[in-house]
Amino acid sequence: MLLARVIVDVMLKPEILDPQGRAVQGALGRLGLSGVTDVRQGKQFVIDIDGELDEDRRAKLEELAGELLSNPVIEDYRMTVANDDEVRA
Amino acid sequence: MSTRIGIVTFPGSLDDADAARAVRIAGGEPVALWHGDEDLKKVQAVVLPGGFSYGDYLRCGAIARFAPVMTKVIEAANGGMPVLGICNGFQILCETHLLPGALTRNDHLHFICRDQRLRIENTSSDWTRDFAPGQEIVIPLKNGEGGYVADEATLDLLEGEGRVIARYLEVNPNGSRRDIAGVCNERGNVVGLMPHPEHAVEDLTGPSTDGLFFFASALTSVLAGSHR
Question: What are the b/e assignments for B81-91, b being 16+ CB within 10 Å?
Fold first, then answer.
């Protein structure tokens, strides 16, 4: 059976303050990691789809990545299609 | 006949009962709307209450935006009906893009709950017309993701058009840009506010009764036919 996996990474836009990332940055320093200059925290969606990832579904995914999975006012997204090996693993 | 104001309950809404009470005390007739409703039951204004709709999953307000009732609310808002989003409701209005900008995690990362002093900056919107210009009020504020952000051009536009309806005084509780506590759309019928006027409508339970002005304003607006 064909199976497609699409990964959508969502990050706050660079100009938006990321207090969570900043808190993590502080924690990394306290736990002994020196030299951390910045941490940004994002989200990753791993989407498995039955069957082929045809053009229609790909277009619909793009649309929903920009409309539901991310808020274009504050976030950027990046969509990648995993290769077959990764999906079967 | 009293003015019918709808209050939407989403799974996870918390302040719908207080919002209904506030409407009643202000002299309106609260009408319960459910997130799955596909009609607005002839209401003349709508309140999206505070809480954690759909558990705040994904982003605050992101899923509520696609609830069936929201299709109708967006339609009505675009037609000029007064719509007030409080806290989570404000987040929903930003997610629907009825209002510009977005609400992000408080800059200090803590949930905050306090009685907050505000200055009313706009007395022409459908939800603030009963205030005196520059009136200072105290109402409760409680949020974890209440930091208002928008790009500089949008902030300048909002300031230039007088669409910042309320600003934080004394303390900026969440890192909101330019101390913004609430904004409205161009027409002034859609208003988003992070603090909670519905918790300040009775001396017994609130820090003031200043919150009543918002609900009374909507009644005034509907009576004046300013819902166009």
Answer: bbbbbbbbbbb
Each residue of B34-87: pLDDT tens digit? Answer: 999 999 999 999 999 999 999 999 999 999 999 999 999 999 999 999 999 999
Question: Of B139, A18, B128, nearest to A10 (Cα)?
Answer: A18
Find where tokens 């053009």 sit. Answer: A55
Domain ranges in chain A are 3-15+41-88
Q: State the Cα–Cα distance between residues B31 and B45, nearest whole angstrom.
A: 10
Find the CB nearest A20 among B94, B105, B151: B105
- In A21-80, the residues whose Cβ lies within 8 Å of chain B are 23, 68-69, 71, 73-74
Percentage of chain B beyond pLDDT 90 is 98
User: Which value does ipTM take for this structure?
Assistant: 0.85
Using a CB-CB cut-off of 8 Å, the residues of chain A touching B107 are 17, 19
Confirm if B168 and B176 have CB atoms less than 8 A apart: yes
- CATH T-level topology, domain B4-223: Rossmann fold (3.40.50)
Angle, to 10 degrees, between the axis of helix B212-223 and the axis of helix B16-26? 60
